[in-house]
Amino acid sequence: MLKLKYLFDNRDLVLMLLENWEYDENALEMLDYYRISASAIYPYKNNGETFFLRFAPYDEKLESEIYEEIKFIQFLHKKGLDVLEPILSKSGKYLLNKSTPWGNYLVCAFKRVAGDRLDGFGSDGIEYSDELITGYGKALGKLHKYSSQYEKVTKKTCFEMFNKMEYYINNKINSKKEILSKEIVEIKDYFKIIPQNSSNFGLIHGDFELDNVFITKETKKYSVIDFGSSMYHWYAMDIEITLNSLKEEIPQNDFEKMKALFINGYKEEYPLNENELTLFPIFRRFENMRKYIGLNETLEEKWDNEPLWMIELRDHLNKHIEKLENSFEKQKTST
Fold this sequence. Notes:
The chain is an alpha+beta fold and 335 residues long. Helices cover 44% and strands 16% of the residues. It has 2 domains: 4-112, Phosphorylase Kinase, domain 1; 117-334, Aminoglycoside phosphotransferase (APH), C-terminal lobe (Aminoglycoside 3'-phosphotransferase, Chain: A, domain 2, Alpha-Beta Complex).
């Protein structure tokens, strides 16, 4: 998530950045359906079709990583995978670094994928059917199959992320340093002994949760969006993140069945060593630490007279941070 100061809807900024793409001026009400989290995302229309403008402050993102994200998406698209499609700007570029009165921003745009988001199921009487969950697993397996064919670039790896974690804890965190440092060392040491090869380690999605996957009901075609969290990791990390998300959406009694359906669907598209499923706990510890650092970065700054929504969001995120700290504490007492 971006720092809190970037979560405001700055419509003048949006319109300034949108001028770099073709758009329908008579459909600007679409901008009201924006979302700001890891980036700001604003829907807009061009010739009646829906697109999304995505941008983030230059000091919040690495230009090289976004460029490589776009390259990976284009590779998957050429392979026939249904993924969001990057759109060229008026200047013929997919990624722009734009100077504005509010600072420099990294900006790109994508065409909306077809279908409905999977997180819209499970409500309004619509169930997560066996077929849907199996297809969900197949979609991730297919993504990993193509990722294993992708030529490695310089995008961040899980090992490089340890450097960021350690730096942040040593320089920005004032409490629980010992517990946090011990947790990182244990995870890092464990990662060093996990077998790694071209078939089980590669560029993962990093956020293959229900809200980032769409399905077209008529064709049963799955489409994937938001590769902003992608990194080089064990493919099983993607499976763990996905199943952890799914567990929060369905009745607890149904989870083991849904887990089996998802994994079986995955294995229809890409091989999976059953031993890698035993790595889920250590992968969850890595993901918890990654989230912990990210949440602390989001809350770094505080201002006088914050609006109510920001106060409530800050309180919500602080509770999540406390929950993560408790998990680190429990890990320490169990080892």
